[in-house]
Amino acid sequence: MTIMPIRSFASGAWVDPVEPRPIMSAVTGEVIGTGSIKVGLLLPLSGARADVGQAMLNAAQLALFDLASDQFALVVRDTRGTPEGAAAAAEQVLAEEAALILGPLFSTSADAVKPIAEEAAVPMITFSNNTAIAGPQSFVMGVTPSTQVNRVVDYAASQGLSRFAVLAPENAYGQLVVQALQEAVFRNGVELSRVVFYDPQSTDISAEVQVLADFSQRRAARSGATTSSCQGREAERSSPRSPPSRARPRVPAQAQNSSRFTSRPWRSCRSRQASATPGRP
Q1: Residue that terminates a domain, selected from 87, 106, 140
Q2: In this predicted model, what pLDDT tens digit does every residue of 14-29 receive, in sequence order?
Q3: In the predicted model, is pLDDT for residue 215 greater than 50?
Q4: 165 part of a folded domain
Q5: What is the pLDDT of residue 256?
Q6: Backbone angles phi, psi at 75, to 5 degrees
Q7: What are the residue ranges of helices labelled H in the chain?
Q8: Are 70 and 150 found together in one domain?
Q9: Closest by alpha carbon to 172, among 213, 133, 125?
């Protein structure tokens, strides 16, 4: 690649540009920068969430080159997305004399790194949002459940919504979400009408969604209303009627071209019952 000199907009003089450094790929064991202050960066650069780890690594490099001074260097290690990998990565960055640990991403990995960092008296800033990890040497930088829930409930209440429900995973995170929601609805003077938990390992939570939405009761009520309406129509048809008037209904002149008087296709009770039946179009 050829690098040409460029003119500085500030002084007007020709200056030689700095060779751009390529973004590092997901390679373990690399130190980015030449500074004496080393910061350990623990990310899942392999495994199921390697894409997230690579994106965060790219962002860290941009921040290092754009904001940090030449005194800093990033010691990057792969956690493999597991607590065991995170603990091993923490040991490696501490062996490199890191003065600060950034990461890991997941709360289980942060739990594994926390005692290692505390024993070495090195602060850890985790990207997890689990506030239970926080301690004298451990800091949580992720967006916490209470922050998210408070923002949603505060805005919804300001728009006039007064009843809330929650579908949460049946684990510690779900309990934090429900607790935050209970506090938020109490503060806003609104109602928490239903709480439903689901198995976070399940691939089908349709049953829990139906419970949350009162699906069975709503369907039964709709079916009963349709049946009553159709029975009323049938009774009306079977009753004797007076001869229809020959006079045409009077439509106001200003409304003759209005869309309100546009004829609409009429659907029979049978067709409505068929459409209300599950599995029928």
Answers
A1: 140
A2: 444 444 444 444 445 6
A3: yes
A4: yes
A5: 42
A6: -100, 105
A7: 50-66, 83-95, 107-119, 145-158, 172-188, 206-212, 215-238, 269-276
A8: no
A9: 133
153-177: b (≥16 Cβ within 10 Å) or e = beebbeeeeeebebbbbeeeebebb
pLDDT tens string 164-211: 999 999 998 899 899 999 999 999 999 999 999 999 999 999 999 999
Domain that holds residue 129: 25-140
Token pair recorded at residue 247:
């006079």
Q: What angle do CA 220, 279, 274 make, to 5 degrees?
A: 65
What is the radius of gyration, based on Cα positions, of the chain? 32
168: domain CATH number? 3.40.50.2300
Total of domains in the chain: 2
Residue 83 tokens read as 């607590």
C-alpha to C-alpha distance for 104 and 124, rounded to whole angstroms = 9
What is the token pair recorded at 40?
Answer: 């350990």
Please enumerate in sequence order all residues whose Cβ is within 8 A of that of 161, keeping only pairs 6 or more positions apart, or say none. 190
